[in-house]
């Protein structure tokens, strides 16, 4: 990505038209020769350069300079041959002599630029490229590259914005800008620039989007929302405008309109996933108070089925779990396990607890027994399997699984006490009153010690 317009004509063959692609100025090699002797020597140098006999080319060019001491073209050619031999100081001296004779020819300055870049003299490269920009402003892209190399990000950002405004955005500049803005201290300058760009052209959507992204990244949600409102006003058809409209509709309890905006947001490939998650969360809170829109919530969740960052269904299950709405929680835990891993440890723990809260003992028992095979040392699964078997009156199965699982209880007095209580229940179901009392007493002792 660096040096996109850098001078690259050092090794072209005889009478090449290498300069004409870029320059409007007269090409040095096309200038008429003053004398036959000069002309013969000059063309001989071009011939020798073309076959990479740079030393011989230099000898011919030195003859030219003796004949015409103030000929900038000869010095320029001399610099190119020294450059090819990697004699960089000699090359720079020759190019500088050319610029002294004819300071208005950008190709002579580009010779010095090539030397400074090749020798990593970036300070000189910056100085020279600034002179070249006077002739051709598009060379500012090279200046941006140099600023990036030398970590002058503030100057690079200013130049990037200037070039974007004058020539339109480029992929290289956008990559550089993203690199700069990843460092928070430069974001304020970019925010100011975007605000100014919006004032200049209120119909350019990308400036709103970039500003919303920066505010969102900094968790400045109110500012992000205000920009979205402004976008909705200026460009009502924008997908990003729906972010603002959704929030406004929801606050006004206009559910149908809010749902329509939400679906546009969630389906958009342009809108940041963080904003999508926030939109879904706001709708979830709304549905908790207005359960008649649960079907719309189901549809909204489906947009996140392939989300690799967040298990949305599980998070919604946790939301309902925290509200004590265990049947809703179960629905979303089961959805998550079906869509992702059926043996996810955390989700299964939460699901078993939710099953127990609503006394769904049959599915709880089946799932716990399945999980014991996957996690044979996870004590909680034995406990839920034992509790479930007791509740469905499979006391022998309960006794067996609880006795197995008790060995895996470590430093958890409450769980150990619960195991003993369920063992007491199992023995009670089996008609062994003595064992029942023994386990109940043991559970009581454990709980006393805990206190």
UniProtKB/TrEMBL annotation:
Xref: Gene3D superfamilies: Tetratricopeptide repeat domain
Keywords attached to this entry: Repeat, Signal, TPR repeat
Record-linked Pfam families: TPR_2, TPR_7, TPR_8
Spans of repeat TPR: 72-105, 310-343
Protein name from the UniProt record: Tetratricopeptide repeat protein
InterPro entries listed in its UniProt record: TPR-like_helical_dom_sf, TPR_2, TPR_rpt
Signal peptide: 1-23
């Amino acid at each position: 990505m660096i040096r996109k317009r850098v001078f690259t004509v050092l090794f072209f063959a005889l009478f090449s038209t290498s300069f004409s692609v870029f320059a409007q100025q007269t090409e040095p090699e096309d200038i008429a020769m003053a004398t036959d002797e000069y002309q013969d020597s000059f063309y001989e140098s071009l011939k020798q350069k073309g076959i990479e006999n740079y030393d011989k080319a230099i000898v011919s060019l030195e003859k030219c300079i003796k004949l015409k001491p103030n000929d900038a073209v000869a010095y320029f050619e001399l610099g190119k041959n020294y450059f090819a031999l990697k004699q960089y100081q000699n090359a720079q001296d020759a190019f500088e002599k050319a610029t002294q004779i004819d300071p208005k020819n950008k190709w002579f300055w580009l010779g010095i630029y090539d030397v400074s870049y090749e020798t990593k003299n970036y300070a000189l490269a910056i100085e020279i490229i600034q002179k070249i920009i006077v002739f051709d402003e598009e060379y500012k892209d090279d200046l941006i590259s140099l600023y990036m190399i030398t970590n002058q990000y503030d100057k690079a950002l200013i130049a990037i914005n200037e070039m974007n405004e004058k020539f339109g955005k480029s992929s290289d500049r956008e990559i550089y800008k993203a690199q700069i803005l990843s460092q928070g201290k430069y974001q304020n300058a970019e925010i100011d620039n975007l605000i100014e760009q919006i004032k200049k052209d209120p119909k350019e959507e990308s400036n709103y989007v970039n500003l919303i992204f920066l505010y969102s990244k900094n968790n400045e949600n109110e500012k992000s929302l205000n920009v979205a409102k402004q976008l909705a006003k200026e460009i009502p058809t924008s997908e990003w405008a729906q972010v603002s409209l959704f929030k406004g509709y929801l606050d006004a309890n206009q559910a149908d309109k809010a749902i329509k905006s939400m679906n546009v947001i969630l389906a958009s490939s342009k809108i940041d996933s963080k904003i999508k998650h926030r939109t879904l969360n706001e709708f979830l809170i709304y549905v908790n108070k207005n359960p008649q829109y649960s079907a719309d919530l189901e549809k909204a969740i489906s947009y996140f089925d392939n989300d690799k960052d967040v298990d949305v269904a599980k998070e919604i299950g946790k939301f309902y779990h925290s509200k004590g709405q265990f049947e809703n929680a179960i629905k979303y835990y089961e959805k998550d396990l079906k869509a992702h891993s059926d043996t996810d440890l955390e989700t299964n723990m939460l699901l078993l607890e939710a099953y127990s809260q609503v006394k769904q003992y049959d599915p709880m028992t089946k799932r716990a027994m399945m999980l014991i095979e996957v996690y044979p040392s996870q004590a909680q699964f034995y406990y839920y399997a034992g509790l479930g078997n007791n509740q469905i009156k499979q006391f022998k199965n309960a006794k067996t699984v609880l006795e197995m699982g008790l060995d895996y209880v470590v430093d958890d007095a409450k769980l150990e006490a619960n195991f003993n209580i369920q063992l007491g229940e199992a023995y009670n179901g089996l008609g062994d009153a003595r064992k029942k009392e023994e386990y109940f007493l043991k559970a009581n002792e454990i709980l006393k010690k805990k206190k």
